[in-house]
């Protein structure tokens, strides 16, 4: 058994990449439990594996004490000195207690430990391998499908794609080759579990990086993505080089670059717009292909705005079932209220009329107040007149005198 065990450990280390010492440590711990279980022993025991010969030895560990209360755990100082005069109180002494038939138990335990370690090592290898692909694109083969998942083989592991990660315009058949985006990798008890998606926005980003060298090297940068998988997507790009047009570069000559991505996603339409620091201009770009006349920001809500478009462009700006406006709002992070030019003018005229009416009412109230002031002035004058008359009379009397 010793030679076979040593050979097995060498094979594990060479072919499976499992460290021999890790298996030996696990084997020794398992043999301690096996010894206590099979020989009804509860004392402190240690198992040592001879890596040169492959032999296994079991030792009972006892502490040197003055007075022995439990012979299974303690040994007297006098007895310890007969073994070796260098022992002192508190030292641990190992006494070999290897049973004669322990080899059979050791072989069974070794087999179980090795199989367990092989499974763990394979799970760790797969987890480490695919965890590196997290947030990246991989190509897999559809294996099967049920009501919850599409199962995609990635080689050594089977990935799962939930219903929310499946494209509504795609049908997945066995042996189909598909590009999927690895959203997360979990090291579960039953083995590594890889979750993939075809609807994630970052799948689109990785596809652009594959098709557009300028995006891959960072010359052109994807700033935002708004996507309704399988139907339409908007991508905002900017250039870090003033001599490079980000939109034209992303589209490619005669649209070849973006068309490759559209084909990969089953005909999903792409709107590529230029990202800019000017938020009003960016919002106008996001509503492409509609023409925008004006963007008015809401003073009471910093993330809301009103967009004015020509009358004939209103339906285009809103889009089918509001899709264009919805994607633009998601791309920019603004709540967008779209109005036609005539509607906006009518609202503005109504507001002006209301303001004028309010102003007129205020002026009328002021006018109504002025006669009262004049009356007071008249009253004052009428009250002063007798005083003047009295003064005149006094003056006349004096003259008469």
Automatic annotation (TrEMBL):
Residues 349-401 are annotated as: Disordered. It comes from the Bacteria. Signal peptide: none annotated. CDD domains: KH-II_NusA_rpt1, KH-II_NusA_rpt2, S1_NusA. Its main location: cytoplasm. The keyword Protein biosynthesis applies. One of its GO terms (biological process) is DNA-templated transcription termination. GO terms for molecular function: DNA-binding transcription factor activity; RNA binding; translation elongation factor activity. Residues 133-199 form the S1 motif domain. It is found in: Cytoplasm. InterPro entries: KH_dom-like_a/b (IPR015946), KH_NusA_2nd (IPR058582), KH_sf_prok-type (IPR009019), NA-bd_OB-fold (IPR012340), NusA_N_sf (IPR036555), S1_domain (IPR003029), TF_NusA (IPR010213), TF_NusA_bacterial (IPR030842). HAMAP family: NusA_B (MF_00945_B). Monomer. Binds directly to the core enzyme of the DNA-dependent RNA polymerase and to nascent RNA. Participates in both transcription termination and antitermination. This is Transcription termination/antitermination protein NusA. The lineage of its organism: Bacteria, Bacillati, Bacillota, Bacilli, Lactobacillales.
């Amino acid at each position: 058994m010793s030679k076979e065990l040593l050979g097995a450990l060498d094979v594990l280390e060479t072919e499976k990449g499992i460290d021999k010492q890790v298996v030996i440590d696990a084997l020794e711990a398992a043999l301690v439990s096996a010894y206590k279980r099979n020989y009804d022993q509860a004392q402190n025991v240690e198992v040592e594996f001879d890596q040169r010969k492959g032999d296994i030895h079991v030792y009972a560990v006892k502490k040197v004490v003055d007075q022995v209360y439990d012979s299974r755990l303690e040994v007297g100082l006098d007895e310890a000195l007969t073994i070796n005069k260098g022992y002192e109180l508190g030292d641990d002494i190992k006494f070999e207690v290897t049973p004669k038939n322990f080899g059979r138990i050791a072989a069974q335990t070794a087999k179980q430990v090795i199989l367990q370690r092989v499974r763990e090592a394979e799970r760790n290898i797969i987890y480490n391998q695919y965890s590196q692909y997290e947030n990246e694109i991989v190509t897999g083969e559809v294996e099967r499908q049920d009501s919850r998942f599409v199962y995609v083989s990635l080689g050594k592991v089977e990935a799962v794609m939930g219903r929310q990660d499946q494209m509504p315009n795609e049908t997945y058949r066995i042996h189909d080759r598909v590009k999927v985006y690895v959203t997360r990798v979990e090291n579960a008890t039953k083995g590594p579990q890889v979750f993939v998606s075809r609807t994630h926005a970052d799948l689109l980003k990785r596809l652009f990086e594959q098709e557009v060298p300028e995006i891959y090297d960072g010359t052109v940068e994807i700033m935002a993505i708004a996507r309704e998988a399988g139907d339409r997507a908007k991508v905002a790009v900017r250039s870090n080089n003033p001599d490079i047009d980000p939109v034209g570069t992303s589209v490619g000559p005669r649209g070849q670059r973006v068309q490759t991505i559209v084909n990969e996603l089953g005909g999903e339409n792409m709107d590529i717009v230029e990202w800019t620091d000017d938020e009003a201009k960016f919002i106008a770009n996001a509503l492409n292909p509609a023409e925008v006349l004006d963007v008015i920001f809401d003073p009471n809500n910093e993330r809301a705005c009103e967009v004015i478009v020509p009358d004939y462009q209103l339906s285009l700006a809103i889009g089918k079932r509001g899709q264009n406006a919805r994607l633009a709002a998601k791309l920019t992070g603004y709540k967008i209220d779209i109005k036609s030019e005539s509607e906006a003018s009518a609202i503005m005229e109504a507001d002006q009329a209301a303001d004028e009416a309010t102003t007129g009412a205020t002026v009328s109230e002021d006018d109504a107040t002025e006669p009262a002031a004049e009356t007071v002035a008249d009253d004052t004058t009428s009250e002063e007149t007798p005083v003047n008359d009295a003064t005149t009379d006094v003056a006349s009397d004096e003259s008469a005198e």
